[in-house]
User: Fold this.
Amino acid sequence: MELLDSHNAATIFFAQAARPELRDQPRLMAPLPDGGWVPVTWGELARRVERLSSFLIDRGVDAGSKVAILANTRLEWGVGVLALMAARGSLVPCYPTLTAEQLGHVLGHSDSEVLVVETKEHLGRVLAVWDRLSLHTVITLEPMDVQRLAREAGLDPQTIASRVFPLSQAEELGGSSLAIEPDRVQQRTAQIRLQDVAYLVYTSGTTGPPKGVPLTHYNVGTSGVAWVEVNGPLVSQGDVDILWLPMSHLYGLGQFFLGNQIGFLTYLGDPMRALVLLPQLRPHVFMSVPAYWEKLMQLSRESASGEKGQHAALMKLTGGRLRFCLCGGAGLAREVKEFFHAAGILIIEGYGLTECSPNLTMNSHDDFDFDTVGKPVPGVQLSLASDGEILARGPNVFCGYYKDPQATAEVFDDEGWLHTGDLGRFTQRGFLQIIGRKKEILVTSGGKNIPPVNIELRFKEYPLIAQVMVYGDGKKYLTALVDINDEAASALLQGGGAEESGIAPREHFLVRQRVEQHVEAVNQGLARHETIKAFCIAPEPLTVEANMLTPTLKLKRAVIACRYRDQLEALYR
Assistant:
């Protein structure tokens, strides 16, 4: 392993791209509209990164400069993030689903100076809050009529247009500067220091505006070194992976940077095609969220009878070459992990949070426990407070929230422990189990403390149910708001011959009956005071766009409770 001093994303990438055996080999496979792929070699990617980085240097980007990217996962995301880091800038990743108001907060609070934006819809949201921002440069990834968008936002078209550059123009301008000063990007990259902020990530909080989390190259570098130490035996140069996760999240961004460090051949996919691509591309590496692992198990079981046949079906669905599988974002049911493991595929889970760059614990290929999130990764110290809250220290832990000393003081104690807000316990073998969220504990009128997440996670195995929010703080008993999967509900009604009833699926008695069965099944495994005594079905889906879920699909409890208060309170009458 190289010394940590060289562990920043730009240095690692340029070093890899310069290797003779990699230079002319494809690093990325970008999708074409007709379903084909165009290879992008390490050398070609490096040249594009260098040209764009040169342009950013000309626009004043240096240490302390914030450069935001508002785009879906695509080739240009990789070009942009490597370019800004090579210029010694700090990345501000923005979820493509953010509203104009949310973008106003993230871009404004972060003091972002440059924005890389994908579509006219994205730019339109930014222009709607332009007056509160400090942007002097905007780089567009797709063709758009900037002046028309400016007029629609009530802004001066000429002023806005003078600050907007299509990516091709930005690269051309940067290339012209490189022709005059060929070493300018290399010289700037050599100036990167471990204490420089690599990312300024805004947490998708369930209450209040998102908080900015500055992560230095030292934070993310030590986290990366620890990750490779744990999982290195399972990944190799030349491995094929499919990157469909949002690069605006540390999970997807980490996969991209890992591919640079190890030497993957990465196919850039999207959420709608990820599972379809598995048997076509036959990846060695696949990183996903629980829903896709659950879907693969379901499809395998529907395709064949008997364990042997189902395992063969799973091999066909995944391409038969999976060697490293990672599940993140939420807990994965033990049944799913056991099904894959019996077929010879180990799905690894871990635990972390943005403030920790993000890894704190991880199971490994030779030391795992399916009922846990693994053991602390190298360099991380974990402890439990008297109430069971997980406390963390280590070189990967951030130093404090951006421009928010009060929030910082609330999460660090006098001994330097970060209070994660999660509740846990250690097994006798030293594995960590997550048992709930400290700030999401419901206290019933009988004095029972109940972490609702523990109950909600039990519904993940039911395809009909999309989300469950347990309710009952200060009440005699618990109730719940249930959001159903509309496609699964329609399939249920079709199978029962009720699809022509004219009644909306969410209102149909067969759907309610099935949900009731699922609630009763979950209740069987709960203590009496934890059981759900009544429920109501949400009249519409709980979505990010409706501000009821965070961009990482966590429940915004206060928002949901406020919107459906009447229905929930009626369950107590």
Remarks:
- The chain has a mean pLDDT of 93.
- The longest strand covers residues 418-426.
- The domain at 4-202 is CATH 3.40.50.12780 (Rossmann fold).
